[in-house]
Amino acid sequence: METAMRKEIDELSRMTVGQLRKKYLEAFGEESRSNHKQFLFRRIAWRIQALAEGGLSERARRRALAIANDADLRTNPRNRKSRSAAACGSASILPRRARASR
């Protein structure tokens, strides 16, 4: 069985992005929002392996859920435009007088 799985994954590596998107739809039952070939390949390969080998154990699923629930997630990411130049590391290190004469 592992040989068939390996063969199916090898076939993925030769597929175009369009073919991978169709395969993603078959594997997950929904269209992918991504057109990134490597992302699609990895997700589909993971799905093929999970179906062949049984995926995560129930214990691993519970642990992952517990970690996700305990995570301090940022629900409102910072606006990139609101950062100051100094926070981005692009502030000049020249004294004020030298900056004016540039």
SSE topology sketch:
Blueprint: H1 2-13, H2 17-28, H3 37-53, H4 58-70, H5 85-88, H6 96-100
Helix pairs in contact: 1-3, 2-3
Which short descriptors sum up this protein?
6 helices, mainly alpha, extended
Summarize the structure.
The chain has 102 residues and is an all-alpha fold. The protein has six helices and no strands.
Describe this structure in words.
It is a single chain. This protein is an all-alpha fold and 102 residues long. The protein contains six helices and no strands. 62% of the residues lie in helices and 0% in strands. It has helices at 2-13, 17-28, 37-53, 58-70, 85-88, 96-100.
Tertiary shape: extended
Terminal Cα span: 70 Å
The number of helices is 6
Global mean pLDDT: 82
Which parts are unreliable, with pLDDT below 50 for 5 consecutive residues or more? none
Q: Radius of gyration, Cα only, in angstroms? A: 23 Å
Q: How would a crystallographer describe the biggest sheet? A: none
